[in-house]
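Re: [ENG-882] Designed sequences occasionally contain unexpected residues at chain ends

Forwarding the minimal case from QA. Structure tokens:
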């Protein structure tokens, strides 16, 4: 996928150097006699500001403090990232948990599970222009929506449409390349586009579309129960080295906390890993993703990383409206909470 060129080689090299350098924390680990555990971590898509917690955890030495030697790589989507984890080429990966649910439906699927949910709310959204008469989701009736190939949000559109009394046949979906998603809406060739709320909406504002003319119709605001991106683990690795997985989760939580406390620094780290990365643009994305997807009201009540089994079950029901399960997974097939620290360590203001 051409979009993955945005992952700058110099960023990955810098991270590799950082992790192999004799840092103070590694010296402490060596002095304590605790060997480092190598973890190959896969991102399922191009780097953006939502991944800043991982980079701050690295920058601040959080992985080293947990005796982990983490290296990052990328895949061309959640299915590829899941395949790497299932095969053992990557011990951990960041994927769309809804793709994990579909992955587990396969008869020969490896028992890969999520161990930490980063996005409490899926970022799926339709971004539309008010000047086209769209203000709420039912206004899409009779409109044209641009949809990129493989857009994950479309997997849950049937359930969302039914839930909101929209006849799916009344909405025209126009297939497009992801590269032209924002340009064609900016040019007025479609009435709306499907995508991630913190990406498309920010991109459109950056292209000069007046903010007052944009409306972001987030699936989560219209009854979608789905969680979003989550860290998944190779089963054999998690069983053999549970402390390493727990340490990774602790380091990530520290990275999220640092990101929430210092969003400007976090955006800078993310931007430095993107070809021609724009710090100000990534900061706008980061503010959006923190508010809408990561630090939700539910997370503030129940802590980072976990799931509500009843809600996860309902989200599987919604997926089933457009996906015929052969072996329907249960919440316990999808998420394993044993690697999470106690609630007190997961609460965040």
């Amino acid at each position: 996928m051409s979009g993955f060129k945005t992952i700058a080689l110099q960023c990955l090299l810098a991270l590799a150097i950082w992790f192999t350098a004799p840092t103070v924390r590694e010296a402490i680990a060596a002095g304590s006699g605790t060997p480092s555990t190598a973890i190959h971590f896969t991102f399922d898509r191009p780097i953006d500001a939502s991944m800043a917690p991982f980079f701050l955890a690295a920058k601040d030495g959080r992985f080293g403090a947990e005796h982990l030697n983490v290296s990052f790589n990328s895949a061309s989507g959640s299915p590829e990232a899941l395949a790497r984890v299932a095969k053992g080429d990557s011990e951990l990966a960041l994927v769309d948990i809804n793709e994990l649910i579909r992955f587990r439906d396969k008869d020969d699927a490896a028992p890969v599970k999520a161990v930490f949910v980063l996005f409490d709310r899926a970022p799926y959204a339709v971004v539309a222009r008010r000047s086209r008469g769209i203000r709420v989701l039912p206004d899409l009736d009779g409109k044209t929506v641009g949809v990129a190939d493989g857009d994950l949000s479309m997997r849950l559109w049937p359930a969302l449409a039914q839930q909101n009394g929209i006849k799916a046949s009344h909405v025209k979906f126009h297939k497009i390349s992801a590269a032209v998603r924002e340009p064609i809406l900016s040019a007025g060739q479609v009435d709306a586009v499907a995508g991630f709320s913190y990406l498309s909406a920010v991109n459109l504002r950056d292209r000069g579309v007046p903010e007052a003319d944009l409306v972001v119709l987030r699936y989560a605001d219209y009854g979608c129960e789905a969680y979003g991106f989550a860290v998944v683990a190779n089963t054999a690795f998690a069983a053999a080295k549970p402390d390493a997985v727990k340490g990774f989760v602790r380091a990530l939580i520290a990275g999220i906390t640092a990101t929430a406390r210092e969003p400007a620094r976090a955006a800078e780290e993310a931007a430095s890993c993107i070809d021609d990365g724009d710090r100000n643009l990534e900061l706008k994305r980061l503010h959006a993703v923190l508010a809408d997807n990561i630090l939700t009201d539910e997370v503030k009540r129940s802590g980072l990383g976990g799931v509500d089994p009843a809600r996860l079950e309902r989200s599987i029901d919604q997926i089933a409206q457009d996906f015929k399960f052969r072996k329907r997974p249960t919440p316990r097939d999808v998420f394993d909470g044993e690697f999470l620290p106690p609630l007190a360590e997961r609460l965040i203001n």
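QA comment: On inspection the terminal residues look reasonable. The longest strand covers residues 37-43. Proposing we downgrade this to a documentation issue.
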